[in-house]
Fold:
Amino acid sequence: MVKPFLPKELVLRLAAILKRVFASPAEKRPEVFRLGEALVDLDGAAVRGPRGEQPLTAKERAILAKLHEERNRIVTSDALCQAFWGDDSFGYENTLMVHIRRIREKIEPDPSNPVHLLTVRGLGYKLIVKETG
Amino acid sequence: MDGIFRILRRFVAAAILLSVLLLVFNFVLLGTLVFREQRQQPAPENVVREVAKGLSVIDGDRYVLAEEAAKLLERQRAWAMLIGEDGAVKWEERLPDDVPRTYGLTDVAKFSRYYLSEYPVYIWEHADGLVVVGYPKNSHGKFLFNWDADWVRSVPWRLGMLLILNAAVALMLSILMGLRLVRNIRPLVTGVHRLAREEPVRLDERGLLGDLAGSINTASAILQEKNAALKARDEARSNWIAGISHDIRTPLSMILGYASELEENPELPEEERRQAGVIRRQGEKLRSLVSDLNLVSMLEYDMQPLRRERVRLASLARQAAADMLNGGLVERHTIELEPADEDLWIVGDRKPLLRAIGNLLQNSVNHNPQGCRIVIGTFRSGDGTRIGLVVRDDGRGVPREQLAELTELPYSSKRTKPPRQGHGLGLPMVDRIVKAHGGRLLLDSPDGGGLIATMEFPAEGA
Structure:
């Protein structure tokens, strides 16, 4: 905060942060979440679904974690590439597509018609997570 | 410094041209002024020749001078005589008394070269002896020149050397004078150059060009003073806005904090929680307005520090579009990305640039509540010197005459109409962000409707 500030403001801000962190434990980033019939376990780096348990590679796990962190929001392919390959380099889009395809094979009932991990044409990807699920 | 060498070169060329002209002029004067009298009268040699030709013998020993030759003698107030082979005067015309009537070999040798009884005399041969023409005393000077033959042969060479030496001296003198001049004006020239760069100038005011130096000093002082005043005023304005916005933000945070607490308080009735929500949302609007105002004023007065890094335009466009979509966009509006050149980079600050694109997108959405299709594209100009981003919509567009004032600050004197919607800071902010990155914002609204906003930046390395 920029000085001078009122002590009251600091207290309110702290209260807001604490509320955000502790108010509902469900909102805390879960290491295990459900995508339709599949259960993604980020800690165990594995997907348990209709096709049995399938392990996730490190990259796949990282991509899923990033998408889940920003779940229900569009994550641009640039942001994904930057998160995994560093700096604002480009030319990784095709590699990224391959990883996404592999993830879909593990979490989607029909990998060619995804319902959880959606492509937003021209922009990036979006992971749909039903909060109640 | 280039200018000074040019001056010196011109100066030397002018000096050489001047000396050549002076030389030619001198020759002309020599011919017209100095030797003029000489040419007006017939030369003594010609007179004596005429006399010798005009003297003819009749009856064996009597001589007669032709009338023309006699008149010539008369005009020159000269006298004449014919000395025979024996040394005696055989014929005379107006011969003065103090001139001897007989001559020996020695006498002839003497007067042929010098004077005869102080009369300047000239001789010519005649069939019967020697014709002598004498002029009045002190009317002519006779000089005898003797030259060494080698010397005569070397005269052209010597004259050439003379000219070359003259040219060399003229060149040296002109260079010396030019250098002196340059030494005098060099501080003035550097002073004016520094003045152009708005650097402080302090010149020596003594010397030939002292008053000029004084004027340059005064101009510099005035410029510095004005710049300082201008900067102080901009800073004061910007600080004032920053201070105000800080002072507003502090109580606003408390309003927002309490409002959201009330909004989420389950003990309150639904209606009152809804009202608290209205307070919170309006407060948030106020907060974003204040921070926008602060950002625009910082950009306006060049006080917004930019964190410069290489940024890819396509990545910016995607991020801005994704942010917009994530922020919740009504179905009526669609955002599309034109597949474009991925390898377009600018050096700039990512955050304000994203903000600029976001503002353009928000602008299209706000002004087209009926819905519109927004397209973001990137481009590189034909000559490769400029790159940029284009945000197009197919909405209502803007009347052409209003386009120019869209980037002016709201309530500025340049704006004829108040902003239609929103706080009117959106496009001015985009304009200032683009300008801070060395680019420009171009707005166009074709007749068919829609708005085309182009953010143009100088290409990297161009």
In short: Chain B touches chain A through 23 residues (CB under 8 Å). The longest strand of chain B covers residues 119-126. Residues 41-134 of chain B form one domain. The mean pLDDT of chain B is 83.
